[in-house]
Design goal:
Radius of gyration: 20 Å
CATH topology of the largest domain: Rossmann fold
Largest sheet: 5 strands, parallel
Helix content: 40-55%
Number of helices: 10
CATH architecture of the largest domain: 3-Layer(aba) Sandwich
Strand order of the largest sheet: 2-1-3-4-5
Structural class: alpha/beta
CATH class of the largest domain: Alpha Beta
Distance between the termini: 29 Å
Order of helices and strands: EHEHEHEHEHHHEHHEEH
């Protein structure tokens, strides 16, 4: 379980960040802080794997918070959330070890990409005693979990719909989903969802298994494949 905190002085933005982050089953929101000083005091006493940090805050700005944490040896990873998009500022934060940078207003899809990339990196580090080139490529995003391009999709499939389904599956990586349950969750017809699930099975991203415990006719249950599962094919 990843322990995450949110540091944001705008209550509305903090609420949005919390709602976006709460869809990830393997992320625990350990605290929400309205300024950098509160967060610094917390991080001196309690561990956190990830912090979503606004740059401009009263008392202690997000960039100074990161620098103080690094000076104290705090190992928390930071994703910066800010309206400041000047290249000098971005470069300075990246040199401080910030793992990603979100510029307001950001979309939920971009937010999800940042969290998914971070979770993939943590999973790779946590499951390996040594890293090979493929591991390192995935960590830096050069060969991240398969990305789908519009011109590579079969006729009739839409990128936005595929992204919606893939995001939900990645946010619940250990769960099994039926076509019907998934269609209710993403608010699409079961016929539509089945086409995308079939595509993901063919693309070696999902495993389809027959389940006899549904109380009626056997049904197909879909499970997101791990990287090791994909590599065995």
């Amino acid at each position: 379980m990843i322990r995450a905190i949110i540091i944001e002085d705008d209550p509305m933005v903090a609420q949005i960040n919390r709602r976006y982050l709460s869809v990830f089953d393997n992320v625990e929101i350990a605290g929400v802080f309205s300024n950098g000083l509160q967060a610094l005091e917390y991080l001196q006493k309690m561990p956190a794997d990830l912090a979503l940090v606004d740059i401009t805050m009263p008392g202690l700005s997000g960039d100074l918070l990161v620098e103080k944490c690094r000076a104290m040896g705090v190992s928390t990873d930071f994703i910066m959330v800010t309206a400041a998009n000047d290249i000098e500022h971005v470069n300075r934060m990246l040199r401080s070890g910030v793992v990603d940078y979100l510029v307001k207003p950001f979309s939920m899809e971009r937010f999800n990409q940042a969290i998914e990339k971070y979770l993939r990196r943590k999973a790779i580090v946590g499951s390996r005693h040594a890293l090979n080139q493929e591991d390192l490529d995935r960590m830096v995003g050069a060969a991240a979990v398969q990305q789908y391009r519009e011109n590579e999709l079969p006729k009739g499939l839409q990128q936005s719909t595929l992204n919606t389904i893939v995001h939900f599956l990645r946010a619940h990586p250990r769960a099994s989903h039926s076509c019907e349950s998934l269609s209710k969750t993403v608010n699409l017809s079961s016929v539509t969802v089945r086409r995308y699930l079939n595509y993901l099975v063919k693309a070696n991203q999902l495993d389809a298994r027959v389940c006899y415990e549904t109380g009626g006719r056997p049904s197909l249950m879909y499970v997101l494949k791990t990287t090791d599962d994909q590599n065995r094919h």
